[in-house]
Amino acid sequence: MRCKKIEKWLSDRIDGELSKEKEGVLEDHLERCASCRSYAASIEKLQNEAVSLEKPEVSPSFWEGFASRLKADLTSFKQGKKEKRPLPLRWNWVWSGAALLAVVVVGLYLLFFQGQMPQEMYVFSLENSLSRIYQEIGDDPELEELFNSVIIASIGESLEDSEWRERPDFLENLLLWEDLTEEEMKFLESEIKKDVKT
Amino acid sequence: MKTKSILALFLGVVFFSSVVFAAVQEKNVQTQDKARRMTRENIITLMLLRMTRFLELTEEQTAKIYPFFNRIEKEKMQINQQIRRQMREIRAALDAEDPDPEVLKAKIQALKELRDALKNKDTELEKHMEENLTVIQQAKYMVFMNAFFNELRDSLNRARILRERTGPKKKK
Amino acid sequence: MEDSSDGHLVTKAKQGDSEAFTELARRCQEKIYFTILALTKNQQDASDLAQETFMQAFKSLRSFRQRSSFYTWIYRIAVNMTLNFLKRRKREDAQEVLDESQSSGNGTEDSSLSPEGRSLKKELSEKLQSAIDSLPLTYRASFTLVVFQGMTHSQVARILGCSENTVSWRMHKARKMLQARLKSYLEGE
Questions:
Q1: Which of A2, B25, C169, C189 has its CA 20 to 30 A from that of C84?
Q2: Residues of B in contact with A143 (CB under 8 A)
């Protein structure tokens, strides 16, 4: 039994999610593996510490205020008034700024481009997206390099997610496909279609 | 005689420099092309990862969509390379002292055909998606493409901020 | 667990009874607030988002089909709203994205106590809080709901709109990250 799998089972056990069958296998492994025993002790300690972390103090008056605020909002909503609660200052500033900017942009656009509607106000095609991005990057290799590294970091974050770990074949294929020739890809496509039909 | 040799030397230097310059430019262009190709590939990878989750694609759907997407992408990359080449040739033709209108006309036509070919690839891709997605997924796809574009712009802004924080690179 | 009185309140609230809804909110406001606070690390934001959550829930009650419990449903609204808020704020302030070690604790007092006042245990608690705060958002959401709110993987999966297996993996990854970060403290005793 591989220790990587055991480590995950140890996590499930802490959450009460490990089946009885796996529990038996786990115990057998722990008897033989010092490293996993040490890991088990570490994460159990982590769990104990985490659940005993102090919650921040919240006074009873906070909850009273919370409840009355909600009550007031519900009453206003029911009366059909859209009484907006004051948002945090930063949100107010941002939204006001955004609204003003939108008005200015639309105004300028109507002024200078009367009769000429843009082909699209939103971007739906990948090529349009890419060409706009590249337009902004222009001839700036340093910026392009940094942009590329941000994209790679985003890919890394996505791949970290367990969903992709659950589909290792698929993941390997994703990277493999880029190196395949046309004929190989067409063959693969037809083979996959056959598989899917059966 | 002396004037002639100086002139010959001067012309030789100019010619040699321009050859070297063109070679360096070509190398820069190839490096830039390669960098752009890598960026594009990474964007596509990210897009596929995001799209799969956003559209909640099943394994069957991913098996049908991914190979097709990759094939279309390779074809579009080749078209884009040709477009870049055409653009460089047009610029070079315009830089000439006396640009030949017929040459320019041919290049413009070639560029238009390439642009249309690119659009057709997008249409082909959309058609394939429609055949393999439910109506709800198709609607999600439209929303997704726009959201993904915004994510790319955000990433570009982050890159700009990163550059501001780290300072300009020293030029080699 | 949703008992019959909760169910009765939900039925009344769906008919527009705001008193019934207020009572439902009162029963879960603490859990919702602390869940949001664990993600935002800012009391003001948490308070505002909790209010927004309940308002959104009240407005959307008609679409609540009671296939899951009311609390699962409202948790879902709370977590999604918070994650969207944090993603928006991430776009506005790239520094938070770039600086993974940034942590403001729970938005309460400064955690830099004098050395004399510190015990090893207290130090571990502080480091642990900081480490939890710097977990990637999706891991932090799962960890908060499972460890701090005592939910099962199945409940968390329904709230986050993912599979149980995904929650299980996120918990495992979160623990691995925390263990790696706090190794020296955990091996201390």
A1: C169
A2: 156, 159-160, 163
